[in-house]
């Protein structure tokens, strides 16, 4: 299969940062493996945007901010359920920098998210309270983008939420599956986060392709 890229398409590269790569604070298994595929893809798109997870020290999503809590535990916060993570992507730390081999020059925008102390933000569009907006939907509309292709980390968190929100905002969303890697946490029910993600993509009309279909 072949997908033709036009000027109405944009590649959203999600959180390819040191902390999500090998030996990072919240390492996604095989996270580094996405870098070369993503570099090739960036050259094939006219429009490229990077997201950067960008937390203040002491962020609400850090287990260390909740006495007695442990990483990967789910807790109730003001806006609902929130998974707690090891401290990661702290503003201006090495872990928050993009992977050193990621080609970033092409990016027209670097969208930072998760910078509010009291709200986490997986999605490039909307913070985890479901209300606070990042302005990215407006940006895409003003740039006359119709279809958002997604690649990066983590498939079952930031890629997932961004893809689903892209659909809710009226854009087509296409996840480039082999250019993503997931965290894969156990879910509350029988399904883990990877399975849940695939199910939600199907339900919400997020399509998925392989990197080699482009180019
Ligand atoms: C992410 C957990 C916490 C992600 C960011 O990029 O998927 N996951 N912060
Ligand atoms: Zn984060």
Short synopsis of the structure:
The longest helix is centred in the last third of the chain and has 14 residues, at 155-168.
Shape assignment: globular
Contiguous low-pLDDT stretches (5 residues minimum) are none
Overall residue-averaged pLDDT value: 96
Give the CATH level 1 class.
Alpha Beta
- The helix fraction, in percent, is 10-25%
CATH architecture assignment name? 3-Layer(aba) Sandwich
Approximately what portion of the residues adopt beta-strand conformation? 15-25%
Distinct small molecules bound, one entry per kind: pyrazine-2-carboxylic acid, zinc ion
**Adjacency order of strands in the biggest sheet:** 5-2-1-6-7-8
Task: Quote the CATH topology.
Answer: Rossmann fold
Q: What summary fits the major beta sheet?
A: 6 strands, parallel
End-to-end CA span: 11 Å
Structural class: alpha/beta
Question: Would you write up a description of this structure?
Answer:
The protein has 215 residues and is α/β, with parallel strands linked by helices. It has one domain: 3-Layer(aba) Sandwich (Rossmann fold). Helix content is 20%, strand content 21%. It contains four helices and eight strands; from the N terminus they run βαββββαβαβαβ. The strands form two sheets. Strands 5-2-1-6-7-8 form a six-stranded parallel β-sheet. A two-stranded antiparallel ribbon has the order 3-4. The longest helix is centred in the last third of the chain and has 14 residues, at 155-168. The protein starts with 8 loop residues before the first strand and ends in a 6-residue tail after the last strand. The relative contact order is 0.20. The mean pLDDT is 96. The structure holds pyrazine-2-carboxylic acid and zinc ion. Zinc ion is lined by residues 53, 55, 61, 85, 88-89, 114.
